[in-house]
Amino acid sequence: MPSRALSTAGEPAVVDALARLGEPAWRARQIRAAVWQPFVSDFEAMLQLPASLRGALAAEFEFSTVAVATEVLADSGETIKLVCRLGDGQTIETVAMETPARSDSRRRSTVCVSSQVGCAVGCPFCATGHMGLRRNCTAAEIVDQVRAASSALHRRGLGPVTHIVYMGMGEPLANAAATLESLSALSADAGISARRITVSTSGVVPGIQQLAASGMPVTLAVSLHAATDELRDRLVPINRTYPLGQVLGTASRYAEESGRRISFEWCLIGGVND
């Protein structure tokens, strides 16, 4: 089986593979452009390449690290919910949401990606938290969710993708290395501005610091859910490690350094935090 994922291979790796195959370096631009075409489902669909090269590339690279196992429509067909199966049989959830243009806003198509299989944070109101953490997603598995969602939107006459939110299964900043690598790939190759990408965190302070150090101007969203440490210790258990004051202080510094607005998320629970 090919050991490298095409979506995160990078141009130098593709050029090196082409050199071994006796192909010119300029083919790398064709290949990397085809990766983001929603109607290209595998190497054989890259019709701009010679058939012999398509077969050789399939032996060098994995076209996608996710396969859509289930596709469900909601909101009159404007929301597409995907169950994506990974190479080891684990599954994650991805959601594509089309928002039509209004008099005061442009259309947008947002993809919500998962960063982990399960989650270790254990918020009692979150279904994923009850799974526990099974493993981290790789950067390619995060990126390929966007590609799978883009294809699903395209098949239904929707898209292209304009925004990405890291708000699916898992805690993105507990998987900071893969999250940062995927952010770099998406902003560089998918043509989506970092300013149109939001990373949501339950308050992993070192991860917020790493995100700030990366210099990528993504929007930071903090899942707050409570205004006191006493309540937040119950609702967001990671608060016992990174308490409210530390999270808010780090988020404020991120806003100052990045120039980006911070979003605060609140799951309203009757009689608890309302």
Structure summary:
By secondary structure, this protein is an alpha/beta fold. Helix content is 34%, strand content 22%.
List its salient traits.
274 residues, alpha/beta, eight-stranded mixed β-sheet, globular
Q: How would you describe this protein?
A:
- With 274 residues, the chain is of the alpha/beta class.
- 34% of the residues lie in helices and 22% in strands.
- The protein has 8 helices and 12 strands.
- A hairpin with a 4-residue loop joins strand 4 (79-86) and strand 5 (91-99).
- Helix 1 packs across helix 2 (27-35).
- The longest helix has 17 residues, at 139-155.
Quaternary state of this entry equals: single chain
Beta strands, count: 12
| Spatial order of the strands forming the largest sheet | 3-4-5-6-9-10-11-12
Mean pLDDT: 95
User: From N to C, what is the helix and strand string?
Assistant: EHHHEEEEEEEHEHEHEHHE
Q: Could you name the ranges where pLDDT drops below 50 across 5 or more consecutive residues?
A: none
Fraction of residues in β-strands: 15-25%
